[in-house]
């Protein structure tokens, strides 16, 4: 995890902290070291410099004990996962694989990517069989709920190869909103990546937080540019990067911290529940 040298002297201390209630926990610096944040000595320095929060409150006492199963810890405002039984993977799902752990029709499913792990993993959200790209696999149900449910507003970015020459006016239409059979929809952001002068195929990038079925394909079809190829490149703070199609890897500590931070900061409800 990357740390800056900013302290949190102005952040609130926890006035409700009860030393007796926490006495049966684990020392904070030991928990940080076990989570791989830093050595125990460096973790002590992080605590005394006011860079560690427990349940949203700055902690500077080295004697503070926490319960890894229930307490939320952050360093430099980036969440730390204390539960070492949780696993978080990034998969670049290939075309032709359904987003299911067991497909009843016998089609290729996600088991080929999870069988190597002991934990019972599941996918966060879905990509249709003909869409490739970033899919998160985890055994963290709380995180999965926040990331997958559109009411929490976690954004996803797609790159689409579409038929025809996409105009700036079409991009404006996608961002201002269009009407589909199941209601209105708009992209949070949209831009043209490449467009041929004489027609052919264009490349466009769309970012949106809707979880409606095949929404990107339906949006582009509605504006007259059917999708030829579709890839999800980003999911929240995660980027597919150079991960090859069909490859799976563990999230880095920084990636996990960013993802957990998004999850913990998510509001309990949003008016937009697409």
From TrEMBL:
Give the Gene Ontology MF terms in alphabetical order.
Answer: RNA binding; rRNA pseudouridine synthase activity
Q: Name one Pfam family in it.
A: PseudoU_synth_2
**What sequence ranges are listed for the domain RNA-binding S4?**
26-90
Q: Where is the composition biased (Polar residues)?
A: 1-10
Specify where the region named Disordered lies, as residue ranges.
1-22
Q: What class of enzyme is it?
A: isomerase
Which UniProt keywords are listed? Isomerase, RNA-binding
Query: In the Enzyme Commission scheme, what number(s) does this protein have?
Result: 5.4.99.-
What name goes with this protein? Pseudouridine synthase
Native organism? Cryobacterium ruanii
Q: What is the lineage of its organism?
A: Bacteria, Bacillati, Actinomycetota, Actinomycetes, Micrococcales
């Amino acid at each position: 995890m990357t740390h800056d040298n900013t302290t949190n002297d102005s952040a609130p201390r926890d006035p409700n902290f009860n030393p007796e209630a926490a006495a049966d926990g684990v020392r904070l610096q030991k928990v940080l070291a076990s989570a791989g944040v830093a050595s125990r000595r460096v973790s002590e320095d992080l605590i005394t410099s006011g860079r560690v929060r427990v349940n949203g409150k700055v902690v500077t006492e080295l004697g503070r004990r926490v319960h890894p199963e229930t307490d939320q810890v952050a360093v430099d405002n980036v969440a730390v996962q204390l539960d070492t039984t949780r696993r978080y993977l990034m998969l670049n799902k290939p075309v032709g694989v359904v987003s299911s752990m067991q497909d009843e029709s016998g089609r290729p499913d996600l088991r080929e990517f999870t069988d190597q792990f002991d934990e019972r993993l599941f996918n966060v959200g879905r990509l249709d069989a003909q869409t490739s790209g970033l899919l998160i696999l985890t055994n963290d149900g709380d995180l999965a709920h926040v990331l997958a449910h559109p009411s929490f507003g976690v954004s996803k970015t797609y790159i689409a190869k579409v038929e025809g020459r996409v105009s700036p006016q079409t991009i404006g239409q996608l961002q201002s909103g269009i009407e589909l059979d199941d209601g209105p929809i708009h992209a949070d952001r949209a831009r043209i990546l490449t467009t041929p002068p004489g027609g052919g195929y264009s490349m466009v990038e769309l970012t949106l937080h809707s979880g409606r079925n095949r929404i990107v394909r339906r949006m582009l079809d509605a504006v007259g540019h059917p999708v030829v190829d579709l890839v999800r490149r980003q999911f929240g703070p995660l980027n597919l990067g150079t991960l090859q199609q069909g490859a799976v890897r563990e999230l880095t500590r920084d990636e996990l911290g960013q993802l957990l931070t998004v999850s913990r900061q998510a509001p309990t409800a949003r008016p937009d529940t697409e």
